[in-house]
Amino acid sequence: MWDPAAYLRFADHRSRPFADLLARVAAADPAVVVDLGCGPGTLTVHLADRWPEAVVTGIDSSTEMITAARALGSPVRFDVGDVADWEPGPDVDAVICNAVLQWVPEHPTLLDRWAARLRPGAVLAFQVPGNFDAPSHQAIRSVAADARWRDRLPDIRGGDAVLDPAGYAARLLRAGCTVDAWETTYLHLLPAGDADPAAHPVLAWVEGTAARPVRAALDDAGWAAFYRRLGEELTARYPARDGLVAFPFRRVFVVATKPAG
After folding, report:
1. Which of the residues 107, 119, 162, 201 could staple to 101 if both were Cys, CB 3.0 to 4.6 A apart?
2. Helix, strand or coil for residue 98?
């Protein structure tokens, strides 16, 4: 289950990659725009601001997220749906996927299929976290390997969860697209809070994303114990200095365009 409140706890930091991705999308006047994995919709509504004449639809598999998105009262249509089942229709001009494809194990094959079916001139733009080998994820895997939890938890994915920019570019070039691909490491400086490991800011960050499968697999008591142990690991790996915790976060970006005509 996704928790919109937990996800939005670092909304300002999470919105920057979306803005950086969108800045490289050159579509001037798309008629139909789809945001796949739209979450609580707070970023999707900016697509309607940028392209006010477009029909914008946000799709997410979480009922909780779509409920929160619909409550925004924007002109965007929000629907519950599985990204893995979605196909671009002949009228779709722009597809945006912000921090969602890492949850789809076979997403490179999915990208191949989408690219083959996009209409001429259409744009596919996505970004994925590239930090699966970062200390934050190493800590989650380390704690999950403890005998108290390992038999109850799903596999916590490592660096093979996503491709690097060259890997994505190669696939989409083969599909006949022009490609703009890059990576950026953001340094998020998070307020340290108090000394309690359960209050560590990186713990709060991963609670809303990377640790979500762990939360879904454990009961309340198991999650509480796991959460505190993970907080201790993260406190050791991300020490506070001058009241801030430095949290580097690598992301991979791709904008692929089908040639027109």
Report:
1. 107
2. strand
In the chain, how many domains are there? 1
Residues 128, 73 contacting (CB under 8 angstroms): no
Can you give the CATH number for the domain in which 46 is found?
3.40.50.150
- Residue 212 is predicted with a pLDDT of 87
Give dist(CA 210, CA 215) in Å, integer: 10
Place of tokens 């001139």: 121
Cβ contacts of residue 140 below 8 Å, gap of 6+?
156, 206, 210, 211, 214, 230
Answer left, alpha or beta for residue 32, where phi above 0 means left and psi between -120 and 50 means alpha.
beta
Mean pLDDT by 10 residues, the chain (261 residues): 56 89 93 96 95 97 94 96 95 96 93 95 97 94 92 79 96 96 97 87 90 91 95 96 96 96 69
Given this model, what pLDDT does residue 159 score?
Answer: 67
Q: Tell me, what's the pLDDT at 129?
A: 95
pLDDT of residue 41: 95
Report helix, strand or coil for 99.
coil
Q: What angle, rounded to 10 degrees, do the helices at 220-237 and 135-144 form?
A: 140
- Domain assignment of residue 186, given as a range: 4-257
CB 213, CB 194: distance < 8 Å: no
Element (H, E) at 135: helix 135-144
Residue 237: phi and psi, rounded to 5, are -85, -25
Q: Are 133 and 210 in contact (CB under 8 A)?
A: no
Size of the chain in residues: 261
The span from the first CA to the last CA of the chain, in angstroms, equals: 43
> What's the predicted TM-score (pTM) here?
0.93
Identify which of 211, 246, 168, 251 has the alpha carbon closest to the alpha carbon of residue 6. 211
